[in-house]
Automatic annotation (TrEMBL):
DNA-binding region(s), chain positions: 124-218
Superkingdom of origin organism: Bacteria
Presence of the UniProt keyword Transcription regulation in the record: yes
Keywords: DNA-binding, Phosphoprotein, Transcription, Transcription regulation, Two-component regulatory system
Name assigned to this protein: Response regulator
Any coiled-coil regions, as ranges: none
Residue ranges of domain OmpR/PhoB-type in the record: 124-218
Alphabetized Pfam families for the sequence: Response_reg (PF00072), Trans_reg_C (PF00486)
Keyword Cytoplasm set for record: no
InterPro entries referenced in this protein's UniProt entry, alphabetically: CheY-like_superfamily (IPR011006), OmpR/PhoB-type_DNA-bd (IPR001867), Sig_transdc_resp-reg_C-effctor (IPR016032), Sig_transdc_resp-reg_receiver (IPR001789), WalR-like (IPR039420), WH-like_DNA-bd_sf (IPR036388)
């Protein structure tokens, strides 16, 4: 999952960034409204965590612009604006949820998970295929009921494929799930993580589609 964090407060931004990455999310962090609009115009995100009191462009303007382009990306507003009128304005502008600073990090993460599940149309956030099960809510993976420890990036590679058996993912698509803008990407990173997943979960779980990418086959 790739998230956009829009937060101008350095201390809050660093804390939230660490918490999100610890939960295996790839995160791009921008610090003003204009940069947020540029990011949303040039990349695809699974969720936006949006402050409202931003330099250069207010968060509500960013949100209204996003919805005006008919983008359905889930947006969680996280702001110090705690008046009822502010909450109403944020929700009416197109926010999917609204949390007031200072917020509890665990609650923030739970709200993020809930929005991602809702956007995917899943009431029960569990993927299961060929004996392999991933539970994004608990970050647990099992093979035939036995727990398996996956690294954050192994999880990021596997989750989209296990969620859509039969869909072919290119290396570039999987790299998007792995890295934010400022991260260095090695030329064989995806291959390394796929190799590790095959060793842990079974050699036949992920197939290589020559010239196209990787797939978890339906059969």
């Amino acid at each position: 999952m790739r998230l956009l964090l829009v937060e101008d407060d350095t201390m809050i931004g660093e804390a939230v960034l660490d918490a999100l990455r610890a939960e295996h999310y790839a995160v791009d962090w921008v610090r003003d409204g204009a940069m947020a609009e540029t990011a949303l115009a040039t990349a695809s995100y699974d969720l936006v965590l949006l402050d409202l009191g931003l330099p250069r462009r207010d968060g509500l303007e960013v949100l209204r612009g996003l919805r005006a382009r008919r983008l359905t990306t889930p947006v969680l507003v996280a702001t110090a604006r705690d008046a009822v009128g502010d909450r109403i304005a944020g929700l009416d502008a197109g926010a999917d949820d609204y949390v007031v600073k200072p917020y509890d990090t665990d609650e923030l993460l739970a709200r993020i998970r809930a929005l991602i599940r809702r956007s995917a149309g899943r009431g029960e956030p569990v993927y299961s295929h060929k004996g392999v099960t991933l539970d994004p809510a608990t970050r647990e993976a099992t093979v035939h009921g036995e727990p398996v420890k996956l690294s954050a990036r192994e999880w990021a590679v596997l989750e989209p494929m296990l969620a859509r058996p039969g869909a072919v993912f290119s290396r570039a698509q999987l790299e998007e799930k792995l890295y934010g803008w400022k991260d260095d990407v090695s030329s064989n990173a995806v291959e390394v993580y796929v190799h590790g997943l095959r060793k842990k979960l079974g050699a036949d779980l992920i197939e290589t589609v020559r010239g196209l990418g990787y797939v978890v086959p339906r059969r």
